[in-house]
Write a structure and sequence with these properties.
Low-confidence stretches: none
Structural class: mainly beta
Strand content: over 45%
Mean pLDDT: 96
Number of helices: 0
Radius of gyration: 15 Å
Number of domains: 1
Number of strands: 12
CATH architecture: Sandwich
Helix content: under 10%
Strand order of the largest sheet: 2-1-10-7-12-5
Shape: globular
Length: 122
């Protein structure tokens, strides 16, 4: 299993965390792989050491892969989690009250965003 954290908005618009496990299939010498996940764009990002962004929503559904540094994310309900290099966050709180994000280390932090296609509505 590959563990990631999902950040989403509940029915009241509050942002919440959810731990998700993505199944992996063992494929011998090449390792264990998940099923493919459709994606949109890849965006590279670098932010200043002083990055401290008040409540905001994710602009799109997207995976965020942290390359270095360390961040703290706070939900609208006050829950805080810390994420470091190599961790993956699925940001899906595109509506609602949003979340806060701040750097915890005095470095220019780098990350990669992998956007997801818009969800189809029935």
């Amino acid at each position: 299993m590959f563990r990631i954290t999902r950040l989403y908005s509940d029915e009241n618009g509050d942002s919440r965390f959810e731990d998700i496990e993505i199944p992996l299939k063992e494929l011998g010498e090449i390792g264990a792989l998940s099923e493919g996940i459709p994606a949109g764009e890849i965006i590279f990002r670098e932010v200043a050491p002083t990055y401290d962004y008040n409540f905001h929503n994710a602009p799109k559904r997207q995976y965020i892969v942290l390359l270095d540094g360390e961040i703290e994310i706070e939900t609208s309900l006050g829950e805080k989690r810390t994420f470091g290099p190599g961790e993956v966050l699925l940001a899906e709180d595109t509506q609602g009250k949003g979340h806060k994000t701040r750097n915890l280390q005095p470095i220019r932090r780098r990350s990669v965003f992998i956007t997801l296609p818009e969800e189809r509505k029935s």
